[in-house]
Sequence to fold (648 residues):
Amino acid sequence: MKQKDLTLYAGLIILGLAAPFIFSGFKVQLTILCVLIVLAMTWNLQGGEMGYNSFGNILFYGLGMYLCASVQVGMFFPLAEWTESGGEKTFVHTTTQFFQGMGVGLLVAAIVPTIVAGLIGYAILGLRGHYFAICTLGLGIAAGEIAGGIEIIGAGQGFTTPPFPKDIVDPEARGQFFYFLSFAMLILTFIFVKWIYGSRFKLILNAIRDNEDKAEAMGIQTMKYKIVGWMVSAFFCGLAGGIMGGLIGYIDSTDVAFDGREMGVFMVLMAILGGKGTLWGPVIGASLFHFLKEGFWTLILGWQYVALGVLIVVIVIYFPEGLMGWLREKYPQRFGEVIDEKDRKAQVELK
Amino acid sequence: MDFLIFEAPILMVQATLDGILIGILFALIAYGMALQWGVMNIINIAQGDLVILGGYIAYSMYLAGIHPSWGVIVSPIIMFFVGWGLYKLVINKVVDRDLFISILATFGIAIVFQQLMNFIFGADVVVAQSGYGTTMLFDNVVTLPHSTIFSAVISVIYAIVLVIYMRKSKLGRAIRATAQNARAAKILGVDTEKVYAATFGINAALCGVAGALIAITFTLHPYVGLPYTVRSFMIVIVAGLGNLPAVAISGMGLGVFEEFADYILGTEFRIGSVFMLLVIILVFRRFKLSRKREYLK
Fold:
């Protein structure tokens, strides 16, 4: 790793660690930012690199959210009674129970969606292009509608996640706990995605995006890699969902968990805004989007969805390549793809 | 679990009848979707929201004291211009692009429409009272509201008019030519830009008719557009583009499926079952095609 990169990463990590103390009033927003970046990065892995534009990653996010909360409750108390009516008042988690439950819950929230993605992957990923997009859109919404009809997880009236233990008196503790949890997840995700970007796996995903039939003809078992790519997305989406559930403290089937109208679109939009198919694009896109959203949402109260819709249309029509794409076009020396001199000569000879 | 529908088989008649009559309405929306998909190669996620908007036009007529049934004439006229304007504003920039771009862009339009309708008409579930009666059949067990019969008849009339228009008129010929080969049509002097705008306008007008009928027969709510989009998408992929009898039959089939799902699974799973059916149909088609090493195009 180059000296410059090292300084950049060290600076970002220090900034991330110091952020909740500097901007202590914005801890929740910073936590959500971390979650959004994770969602955008993992969506990009699959939508941008693999070319499978999914509207349905919200499925894993919501699944993770419900699983984490259910495990957290179900480990110690009967789940049905908890969700029936005000269970959080009758049953109280002790401090150890809360953190144990959270740990196991997050583990389950990450692993089960991954398995689900693996199981349905073979069927769903055989669809291509817009059929895949519509099918995953249907999956996400169907999941929300079905979750809204299941009694044990609260059905339509929602599910209150275990409140933060009362024994910890420090009022800042809850915010800091969730912030550092999500920040740790962000670092984990970034390292993992960066590792993927340097591996052969990323090249295979790109080959699938550019021409799947040719990739298959070259002897790549495309289905295998597509499923693995989707499972990676599912893993981090589930994890992010679990953390978000704990942070929000309340799960509703269509408005919080399987929130295709907000989160499901946001992750696509953020990746496109930053630039699909780049490492830093989703990070920048998510930060910018979150900043704009939180900055202007309050100014245009009531009109935020109109603004969101217009934003989607404008971004998709005028900036389909995103910020990184624009930078690449403008400053190809600095941001363009690095091509070996040897490779380029070979290309020229081929032509 | 006890299934009411198996204990009282007469309810199957009810479900089938309701399903067929609703299905005709779905088929009308699906025909509009097939039209724009075939001609302009875009998938319009805002289709259902256009339907709901058309419904709200009929509803506001009802509020103004005019009988909402006139909505089936007024609503398509207004919606045609809404569609035309929408084309000039947004859709013309996504026509030649990737289908995913059109999906996302129309998704954005859908969100804007939902929210604007929410502002203007409120978030309540509304219905335009048509005042049509109800026929009771089989010892008052099976109900047959006249409004659903009215909606089915109007849908069929509009479908027939549209088919004749597409066959006979100059614009209809131009639309069909553009669908077959846009470049060749352009070379031969067809103003494809105008054809696209007209196609989108006709699609919106069809949505307007369907919406006005929905306002009379069912309920309206700003956020229920997406299920209509998905239903029409489903009908189109089952029936294929531009095969009208197949569109009608699969529309009715979907309607019957939904009514049965409503009785068997419960009303809370009705919309969920529609979306699950979409997934199942797509996956089924994918496995069927993959035997020949093909995929859905």
